[in-house]
Amino acid sequence: MCIIEADCLELVRYTTEPGGFQMIFRRAIGSLLATAGVLVSMGCSNGGHEMSHDALDLSMEPIQVELDWSPQQVSINEKIVLEASVTQGGEPVNDAKEVVFEIVGSTDKEQKLEWKGEQSGEGVYTAEGILEQEGTYTVTSHVSARTQHSMPSKPLTVLP
Predict the structure, then answer these.
(1) Which residue range or ranges hold the YtkA-like domain (predicted)?
(2) What is the value of pTM for the model shown?
């Protein structure tokens, strides 16, 4: 498509001259290569932002989860607070995607509870509830954070 009449005349002249079409083809290929080069160089730049090597190293370190609860000695029908302290590289993780506490009876594997953890402090996630039966349970905290998943477990004994 000709935008200016002079461009149309130029196009007609090149296509009617011997080898004229090849010249147009070479110019088109040259323009495409130049455009591709500019796009590639823009894609490879970091937009003027420098990335810290510490940030890259930190994401490679595994998340650490410390599982605990209070009170330490639990009785039936008594409120218990489960706690997962999440860190990475010694720093608290405040952006966990999901924290779920799974409580499974050791004698009856069908007896399973899941309590959703909520952030309650610097890297600390808690959930509370009541266990209505005495016995031994396995408490597992499922923590998904920063593309990682950690699930430490500890035994919990509920007294009468």
Answers:
(1) 61-142
(2) 0.63
